[in-house]
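[agent] plan:
  1. take the single chain provided in the ticket
  2. run structure prediction with default settings
  3. attach structure tokens to the ticket
  4. add a short note for the reviewer (M.T.)
[agent] executing step 1
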Amino acid sequence: MFGGGGGGLNPSKMKQMMEQMGIDIEDIDAEEVVIKTPDEELVFSDAEVQLMDAQGQETYQVVGSPESRERGAGGGTESDEADEGIPQDDIDLVAQRTGAGEEAAREALEETDGDLAAAVERLE
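[agent] step 2 finished; step 3 output follows
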């Protein structure tokens, strides 16, 4: 199909063909890639990451073997705690906007799954 030998297409020839089609590929020097799902975090250390830009549509390719860890089990850092609750800035904003107390603002945000507008509307 491509090329003449059994080894497939030459990588430099493939890159040239992709450039002619308007596809750019860039290697990204990533130290770590984290994919967060509702139940777990997939952590890729020393992953190979490539960015492919095909006419403005960006696609990232991550190659490696991830370590799976339960959400919030990353050693109790501040960012882990923030992921589990409502951001303090949101609570302050709702409390300031409605004149409600901080606890009422937090409850309204929890009941509306963090939707600022719905929380404000609920308290007004």
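[agent] step 4 note for reviewer: The radius of gyration is 23 Å.
[agent] ticket updated
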